[in-house]
Amino acid sequence: MTNPILSEWNTPFKIAPFAEISDEDFAPALEQAMGVHNAQIDAIASATETPNFVNTIEALEAAGEQMDKVLSVFYSVAGADSNPRREELQREFSPKLSEHYSGISSNKTLFRRVADLWNRREHLDLTDEQKRILFLTYRGFVRAGAALQGEQDTRMQEIKARLALLGTSFTQNLLADERDWYMELNEDDLLGLPDFVVSSARSAGQEKGSDDPVVTLSRSLIVPFLQFSPRRDLREKAYRAWVSRGANGGETDNREIAAEILGLRQERAKLLGYDSFAEYKLETEMARTPDRVRDLLMQVWEPAKMRADADAETLTAMMRDDGVNGPLEAWDWRYYAEKRRKAEHDLDEASLKPYLQLNRMIEAAFDCANRLFGLAFKPLDVPLYHPDCRAWEVTREGRHIAVFIGDYFARGSKRSGAWCSAMRSQAKFPVEQAPIVINVCNFAKGDPALLSYDDARTLFHEFGHALHQMLSNVTYESISGTSVARDFVELPSQLYEHWLDVPEVLAEFATHADTGEPMPREMLGKVLKAANFDQGFQTVEYVASALVDLAFHEGDAPDDPMAKQAELLNEIGMPAAIGMRHATPHFAHVFAGDGYSSGYYSYMWSEVMDADAFAAFEEAGGAFDPERAKALEDSILSTGGSREAEELYLEFRGRLPGVEALLKGRGLIAA
Ligand SMILES: [Zn+2]
């Protein structure tokens, strides 16, 4: 019998036939697909005809279609509906896949053909998109080290292997420190804590095998504890343990690992011909240079610090009223900020929720896409991997655009968080294929299902990513949809969140589950105002981490990262009562792998753009201005990675983004 994953999918819109696929199909399908892919790569690399665009670049683009099928099905179920067998497969597949892909990117015969084409690029008569694909393919090989020879090549392989090992140790040490520490609480210690903190402390206690409730170092427990516990001594103890993760001495200490990682990264960048690792990393980003990143971060830093300093004074005065002397400490900030939030804009989550029905919020996201881009959504009855999944056919003026799938509810088999992925990406080569895009969230079930405001924001965010995939209009899959620079990819998603805050959208769709009444004006005002509460603190803790990340990867790698971190914080005047959002020994974004190294800034980079881009709508006459909507689709949502991000933004906005809209949005300067 043929493997259902690899056979032709005779289903509506060629959606994967999930019902026919069993877990035992994945491993053989992947083996077969990798074998086919390797044979395709070998054939391209060893071809005897002179390289041309068709026999090399297009052939590479078309290769591996079976891999796409297997992986899109497997990752859908492994992330959103896992089980022990799927987890086991994931552990099995991950090293195999990284070996498979690094085998391709270090294939020297293949690289020689790509390099030959690159050298003759001016004479190949290529379209703009083809030039771009050739450039990206060539650059990808060079950055992976395919051009290195002899000793340099050997050293590069050693560095990569060592870095992979160090990244894993860093993560495991962090997990060990987080697992080992906990603080038992007696009944008196629970006074003042809201029910949800008490109940998560109790279940954390059970997990640790303790009869008492406990505080652990998990962000979802320790942050609310610091926010609500009136016991200053306990807050201090918990806070100190939290910020010591990875720096407790002994076998799980990450400080030397961090230093070695930074040294190896620098050596790797030098081997590839870059001055620093930051330069290497930022080359493919919209920001492009360390100077531009620092410039942006410092423009935000100054006003954020001023706001934080002013807030610190207010909080210190509140602390004095409690009879506490001495300076405001890092374990005091969240507690007094929470008290202040209650006093200044108390928003009662319980009375807000009935206005945010999941179904109405989905309708709102669809309605905005209809008004902006003319998209229509029709429910589609197709079997998917879980009964909670819902599907819609997306059309425009009757023409099929995409299939959109929403898998909204939390369940034990789903990993936490929310994400968007393409089960199939838009492309026109080798054949026209329409996208199949899924949003996965973790909302609580209910009848009707109700959301918090943050949940509703998440729904709009992921739908923004989905639009980037669904409206994609390029030829080649490798640059389709969200295949763009990391510091650009959150622009469409964060931008779409702004439409949730448009008063007329909430007025129409935020209707009470029982009465159908629209949300009262006063509540609406509170919701919108609550968004920029304590932004001095939030911005300071984030920007400090981003600046340290950048400093680590610029110039010579520091021998002592902790000293470098202290020096930088001193230089920028870090407020004493605010810690970094992630300090070096537990800065997993930067040290657990390569993903966000000298890239932690990118959240803010995107936020600057989304605020600036939404301001373009407001300046043009409103959130639904048709000309702005068309420009957004033409220049950003349809173009994928076919051009440099900066060029796309310039085309949309007529200028580069400025920080003003972000500072206003965060309440750091007057609106
Ligand atoms: Zn996102």
The average pLDDT value, as a whole number, equals 95
| End-to-end gap | 66 Å
Strand content: 5-15%
**Biggest sheet descriptor:** 5 strands, mixed
- How big is the Rg? 26 Å
Question: Explain this structure to me?
Answer:
The protein has 671 residues and is α+β, with helices and mostly antiparallel strands. It has 28 helices and seven strands. The strands form two sheets. The chain has a five-stranded mixed β-sheet, sandwiched between helices. A two-stranded antiparallel ribbon has the order 1-2. A hairpin with a 2-residue loop joins strand 4 (390-396) and strand 5 (399-409). Helix 1 (26-46) packs parallel to helix 4 (84-105) and helix 13 (290-321) crosses helix 14 (330-345). It is globular, with a radius of gyration of 26 Å. The structure holds zinc ion. Zinc ion (ZN) is lined by residues 461, 465, 490, 493. Zinc ion is lined by residues 461, 465, 490, 493.
